[in-house]
Amino acid sequence: MANPLTILANPDTFKRWTKPLILPIGIAAVVLLLAGSFVGLFASPPDFRQGESVRIMYVHVPAAWMALQTYALIAGASLVSFIWRHRLADVVAREMAPLGLLFTLLAIATGALWGKVTWGVFWDWDARMTSMLVLAFLYAGYIAVWQIIDNDWTAAKTAGILAMLGAVNLPIIKFSVDWWDSLHQKATVIKEGGPSMPASMLLPLFLMAFGYIAFFGAVVLMRSHTALARKKAPARKVSSVRMEEAPAAS
Amino acid sequence: MATPFEKRRRRSLFLTLVLPAFAGAAALSLWAVTKTQVYAYAPSSLPAPAELGDREVRLAGLVQEGTLSISEDDLVVFTVTDGAASVPVTFEGILPALVAENEGIIAQGRLQPEGIFRAETVLARHDENYEAPEVTKALQEAAEKNADL
Q: Which loops or segments lie on the Cytoplasmic side of the membrane, by the record (chain B) (predicted)?
């Protein structure tokens, strides 16, 4: 009969299954981020060229990874929603978007600070930075579509198409440093031949990366639960108002 | 009336037509941009001064060894090379800390008629390799030891 995905797509099942996960994932996020920050700031070496400023990487790189990953998830959920009309996919995609925008802006802001101390400028219109700015605008546009259109089905369809078309920007961001000459350096961790970074730097980087993922997971689950609860709330609110008004009218 | 199954198939068909078409359009425009635009010129691909005119361009390469000099009034002179060709650069101001001989830079400025590149800004580049300083030191010492033998 029904496949496992269909069962989880039921909002009530989703809530029942994921509610107990929020607390442990949230605790994991706090622990990983604290451990990553400590190792990144105090227990890892400076870089041979960049010195202490390399520590900005532990905030910047996971933020940029999350910015791309979140957009990929939104585009995937939009595809599912567009074809199979799953309300849960719409809700989760919508609730992920502000986090994606936050990660993108964090990556741009920390990149600007890092750029100032290493390159000598906060910003340059190279391919990587420009495509990241486009990603921020895509997120903003996606959120705006949800805000402007009142009907949830229309909003989901319109925002979903924007998300799917915008996904073309993801490979552009990833490969911008390979396809074009750029000020931004090429990939260090995810590349052929393995990471060109010592283990003492990879450790805080991955602690932070998993911390970001856990933070993202916990917040998305909480936001989705709230959004699903709110969907039911208006009906109750209206009926309670009517009951209060009823005696006065009679 | 279309059944839900038919509607779903119609929506899938819509996506299989629209998404690849959009991706293809994006790829073609990027390809066109790549053909006509450059972010930075390497010394060997830098056009002649007459061709560039007063246009501001970027020049990317390595600071050639033994050419970097900074006068007391912050006038910086060095040569940028890509192995095949080299271009003399002048710059007034304070260089980013990471600018050094044999390291990558990007200079933004104008090529003067006499072939000297006058930079408004000099940016330091760093590559994708990270290392702990102790490791670098150990590697250098090992290399020196080998050279002595």
A: 1-11
Distance from CA of B79 to the nearest CA of A (A): 18
Nearest to A196 among B12, B22, B130 (CB): B130
Q: Is the pLDDT of residue A249 over 50?
A: no
Is B126's CB within 8 Å of A126's CB? Answer: no
Contacts of A196 in chain B (CB under 8 A): 128-130
A162, closest residue in chain B (CA to CA): B19
Phi, psi of A120 (to 5 degrees): 110, -5
Q: Cα separation of B48 and B112, whole Å?
A: 10
Flag residues of chain B having pLDDT under 50.
Answer: none
Q: CB neighbours of A54 closer than 8 A, spacing ≥ 6?
A: A46, A47, A201, B130
Q: By a Cβ cutoff of 8 Å, what residues of chain A touch chain B?
A: 45-50, 54, 79, 82-85, 117-121, 124, 126-127, 164-165, 168, 172, 179-183, 185-188, 191, 196-198, 200-201
Q: What is the number of alpha carbons within 13 Å of residue A181 lying toward its C-beta?
A: 16
For CA atoms A71, A75, A81, A82, give the dihedral sign: positive
Residues A89-92: contacts with CB under 8 Å, at least 24 apart? A89/A9, A90/A152, A90/A156, A90/A160, A91/A11, A91/A224, A91/A227, A91/A228, A91/A231, A92/A220, A92/A224
Q: Mention the CATH class of domain B43-124.
A: mainly beta
User: Given CB atoms, is B106 within the 8 Å cutoff of chain A?
Assistant: yes
Chain A contact for B146 (CB, 8 A cutoff): no
The pLDDT assigned to A86 comes to 84
Write down the ipTM of this complex: 0.84
Query: And the tokens for B27?
Result: 């790829």
pLDDT of amino acid A192? 82
Hey, what amino acid is at B27? A
Given A49, A165, A201, which is nearest B126 (Cβ)? A49
Contact call for B133 and A47, based on CB within 8 A = yes
B56 by Cβ neighbours in 10 Å (0-12 / 13-18 / 19+) ranks as: exposed
| Structural element, H or E, at residue B40 | none
Per DSSP, the three-state class of A142 is helix
Known binder of ligand: residue B126? Answer: yes
